[in-house]
Amino acid sequence: LNVWAPFSMVAVVTIAWTPIVMHFFDADSETCSALSNAEGAFRLQLTALSFLLVFRLNRAATRHWEARQLCGWMMIHCRDLAMSSVAAHASAPGDFSAETRDRLCEVAVGFPVAFMLHVWGPAQSARRADLFESMCYNIFDAPTMELLSSAAHRPLAMVEHAQAVLASQFLSGSARDNVAMAQLYASLLHSAKGLGQPLGGCERIQGTPLPYAFVVHLRSFLLLVLCGIPVVYACDWRWATIPLSLLVAFGLLGIEAASVECERPFSPTPTKNDHDVEKFCGVLSREVTEMLERAAASTASAEAARLST
Fold first, then answer.
1. Tens digit of each residue's pLDDT (9 = 90 or more) over 139-184
2. Within 10 Å of residue 295's Cβ, how many Cβ atoms?
3. Which of 25, 202, 237, 279 is a good FRET partner for 213, with 20 to 30 A between their CA atoms?
4. What is the rounded CA–CA span in Å between residue 213 and residue 252?
5. How far apart are CA 168 and CA 53, in angstroms?
6. What is the pLDDT of residue 152?
7. Which of 257, 187, 229 is nearest to 9 (CA)?
8. Tens of pLDDT along 101-119?
9. Nearest Cα to 117, choosing from 280, 285, 287?
């Protein structure tokens, strides 16, 4: 919301009306008496407006905080998917292949990128596909990258890909009769499916703003009340009407602007008021890379110890 347009309108009304009152109306004039009698009704309107603004800001802040919680759950499930697959291969390389581990770690790194591009909102599909390919360069093999980049709903395709990898590993061969592998499959499947919860929650937040009728009425009501403040109180405040009216306008318009900023917490050009999902992508990428490096170092150390004996 650009607050300067309504603020300028309030300033024009205030600066135009205050000198008129000062030069043409005394405090005891009929006009000032009538405005003074209307002051009680105007206070009721100002009180109602304050409650509406607080409600709007509260709803926007709740959406902003819920979106951050959902991003946290996305990171938790991605970490669980990567950690469990790395640990499973390290403990039982014969039952849990390195290929499955790598495919699941790829999902843990690539899903936040697909999630970020998706919650940024509609855009040219070709441009988003190019962004996905550039940000996930050398993560997926060529067939998988082609499949994911061409998907209309990329995060959902990523979850499907993870479930397919798990099904290929656990639902064929001797793994079906292994109780420990069955428990591991259930745990990994829970993490993969869990990625859908933050995805759906953030889709709801981005796609469901407050009702248009409520927002339009609130802004119209706000502008009328702010323009009415100097008219009603100029006889009492005198020359102080100008700074006091502008101060009230700045405060109430600022609340509305803050609500607009918090209402949609994701943006392709994030500010301090948006969640920096790209930062989350970088954090997860580094963490998964470190997990794989530690696993490789541990395997090399174990192999060196075996050869030394």
1. 999 999 999 988 989 999 999 999 999 998 888 766 666 788 888 9
2. 18
3. 202
4. 19
5. 54
6. 87
7. 229
8. 999 999 999 999 999 999 9
9. 280
